[in-house]
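The instructor's notes for this session suggest beginning with a concrete chain rather than abstract definitions. Hand out the sequence below and ask the class to guess, before any prediction is shown, which regions might be ordered.
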Amino acid sequence: MVIVVNRRGPVTACHVARNPLLAEDKRATIKGSEPLSEVPLVSLSHSCLTMNLLLLAMGLILLGGPHALHMGPGDPNFDEKLVKGKWFSVALASNEPKFIAKDTDMKFFIHKIQVTPESLQFHFHRKVRGMCVPTMMTAHKTKKKFQYTVNHSGHKTIFLEKVDPKHFVIFCAHSMKHGKETVVVTLFSRTPTVSPDVMWMFKKYCKTHGIHTSNIVDLTQTGASPRRCATLPKGPEN
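After discussion, reveal the predicted structure:
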């Protein structure tokens, strides 16, 4: 029996894998649990390597901040021009409740997207005191693919995320004000509604970006009338 004294803490599987003396003792006890029987050195080394890689990945995500969570469309060669045309706002989510409140003036309903060599131009209708008021927001392209900047009511960074140009597109916007970050995620559709699968995917995406389920709004189920606000240039809500 080999007796090992570890002044820095209990003997772990990683210690066993890295220390040949420990590996020779197939009955080494790890963290006071049941004695290990026939612990293969290669298996333990592989486990330690996997653990270290996971810790490294988590560290890189933390260092990269929220931007590290954005992977863009599945196809890195996706042509941004394919998102141009008419769209409907069908879902909205945010970590800031005021952006999704039922009667807020901060809701924007998409009408169409135009694509230029330097930018994406979002044509919205904004509900203001029962009126659908047209407005336009320009998102300037950056050196990073599928990432844009907007100087509209403060500086924002917008990411083009999941997309099926014939059916739906998801955009995620980050803005910082007074040291607090706000995240707004929007789901646009070519039709006034989307399939349950697309809505499920949108909700899953929001959860992975730290947005609670209670802050995800299905606009097709709230009476917000995205179709009317997206098609009427201006007029009262009936």
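Then share the key points. The domain at 70-231 is CATH 2.40.128.20 (Lipocalin). The two ends are 84 Å apart (CA to CA).
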